[in-house]
Amino acid sequence: MSSLDQDQCLHPSCRDKTTVSSDPSDACDLAKQPLQGLKLASHEVLENAQQKGRLKCTKCGGSRMFFCYTCCSLVGVTLQDIPLIKLPVKIDIIKHPNETDGKSTAIHAKILAPNDVTIYTYPCIPDYEKDKVVLVFPGPGAVSVRDMMQCLYDRTDSQSHDYSHGHSVKRLKREEGQGATHTDKNPESGTQGEKEGSESRVYPLQRVVFIDSTWNQTNKISTDERLQDFIRVELKTRKTCFWRRQKGKPDTYLATIEAIYYFLKDYHELFVAEEYKGEYDNLLFFYSYLHSVINTAKASAGKC
Ligand SMILES: [Zn+2]
Fold it and tell me: Staple 281 to which of 32, 39, 127, 143, CB 3.0 to 4.6 Å?
């Protein structure tokens, strides 16, 4: 497999309207809404790279654009050209071996946040401490991001009752109570209080696991016995704008990079306790660009 699935759209004639801003008359406008207003690094570097066309990956020789999904290295752009993101929690992605690498959006996370993201190929799954890790996966028993932390505390509470931990739970509950109105707070005093809170709190969550595969393959990974006892988190209110949306699946089934982004945004707003200011928007740096290019191509072909 030497080509990205989006090949047919990545040619110069598709290069107009490659930013996330959209024409109101565009039939795809609704589908683009979730990506409006993101704080993104300039896409100019991607536009320029796209104009040059595909290049050979210096490591494997594969024909690639922007990055090599096999070697996880940049192609035609440099590290200085792309945003690098620091995440508030480590992310592991378990990839299905049959998932075509060129179609996966997991690689976007690894390239844009290389220090915080690790990709494993199933059946390789690290040996996790189950009370410090959550699995983002929908289904019965899955909890919201808001409830996740309390579930982790409850789980560790049942194993340990030391004083410092009990203190953390109280603090979390108190701040959750304020959560609904935190945007109304005086900005200065709010920021100060939130900073103190984030410094003194110790959260049990160390790592968040995502599964990267088609939703049919995902069943095999999610039912693996090594992933059974995790707290599962569901991102119920988000809708995908993935151009490879799977037939017969609801639009709340997200592309991997969307799931990571929305999880982190919720996590930040709930537990980092400062206003979200677009810190992780650049996780969608490639995704929003490709989304825009492909939707523009579909619209001009009258298929949207
Ligand atoms: Zn390569």
Answer: 39
Torsion, Cα 23 26 30 32, to 10 degrees, reads -60
pTM over cut 0.85: no
102 C-alpha to ligand 1 centroid (Å):
11
226 CA distance to ligand 1 centroid (A)?
Answer: 31
Report how far ligand 1's centroid is from the alpha carbon of 4 (Å). 13
- Distance CA(259)–CA(279), nearest Å, equals 16
Determine the distance separating the centroid of ligand 1 and the alpha carbon of 71, expressed in angstroms. 4
Which amino acid is residue 42, in one-letter code? S
Q: 225-237 pLDDT, tens per residue?
A: 999 989 999 987 6
Cis, peptide link before residue 24, omega less than 30° from 0? no
Confidence at residue 189, expressed as pLDDT on a 0 to 100 scale: 40
Q: Tell how far the Cα of 60 is from the centroid of ligand 1, in angstroms.
A: 4
- pLDDT in the model for residue 238: 65
| Interval between CA 67 and ligand 1 midpoint (Å) | 8
CA distance 73 to 110: 10
Residue 62 C-alpha to ligand 1 middle, in angstroms? 6
> Cα 298–299–300 angle (5° rounding)?
90
pLDDT beyond 90 at 47: yes
Residue spans of the domains in the chain: they are 7-41+87-145+204-285
Instruction: Please say if the pLDDT value at position 37 is more than 60.
Output: yes
Position 32 scores a pLDDT of 46
Tell me, in angstroms, the distance from the centre of ligand 1 to residue 65's CA.
11
Distance CA 63, CA 115 (A): 26
In the reported structure, the alpha carbon of residue 213 is separated from the centroid of ligand 1 by a whole-number distance in angstroms of: 21
160-181 pLDDT, tens digit per residue, is 654 444 444 444 444 444 443 3
